[in-house]
Amino acid sequence: MHAASICSRAESSAGVSQALRQRAARMRYGLIVVSFCFCSCAFTVLISFGVFTEQRYEAEMSTLHSLAVLALFWVIGVWGLRQRPGLVRQTVSDAPEPELPPAQKYEKSALDRDRAERIARKIEAAMAKDLLYRAPDLSLWDLAKHIGVTSHYVSQTLNTHLGKSFFELVNGWRIKDAVTQLTTTDATILVIAYDVGFNSRSAFYKAFRRETGKTPSDLRR
């Protein structure tokens, strides 16, 4: 947990640093544009007061245009070099590595089988008795806090002992509850969906079909 928080802070710091660099770059480009506009305005004012003759005006305007084009290409070039290339082929070393099997993923964990079984029973009680799955915004951290176990051990128990992910566990209990309500009550499908913990009708139908192979409407026919 401590290492994860350090990594999280490091990633956050890196993101802030990158954002600051990008902001500084935008400010530099903005200053260049503002400076160019100021010089153009100043040059126009000088011309209006007759500081430059017609011949000198043409020569100065030609020089100014050349400098403007040069500055524009310089800004575009620098901006382009600072961008991340979008057409570079991803190498094998950059590709995400496949997730390790649970046995290898947790081989260095201190969680033994007996303790995993106790955690599994606590998870079962939290769902069956406390109806924790009905909380719409339930997270792995919430479940771990409820049963008094670290989230890492809860995740490990789910993967190695129960053979499912956190979302599979929660949706399984939600659909089980929904099936009971659909067959024993006259509540509408939408009311049942929200009651068992889903935030939307579409998410409920998708999970229901995945768990049962049917739709809620099919079950009531």
Q: What's the CATH H-level superfamily name of the largest domain?
A: Homeodomain-like
Report the strand count.
Answer: 0
- The gyration radius over C-alpha positions equals 32 Å
Structural class: mainly alpha
CATH architecture of the largest domain: Orthogonal Bundle
**In this structure, how is the largest beta sheet organized?**
none
Organism: Sulfitobacter geojensis
Keywords: DNA-binding, Membrane, Transcription, Transcription regulation, Transmembrane, Transmembrane helix
GO molecular function: DNA-binding transcription factor activity; sequence-specific DNA binding
Protein name: Helix-turn-helix transcriptional regulator
Short description:
It comes from Sulfitobacter geojensis. This protein is 72% helix and 0% strand. With 221 residues, it is mostly helical.
Structure description:
The chain is mainly α. The protein has two domains: 2-82; 103-220, Arc Repressor Mutant, subunit A, CATH 1.10.10. The chain contains ten helices and no strands. Helix 4 (113-128) crosses helix 6. The longest helix has 47 residues, at 2-48.
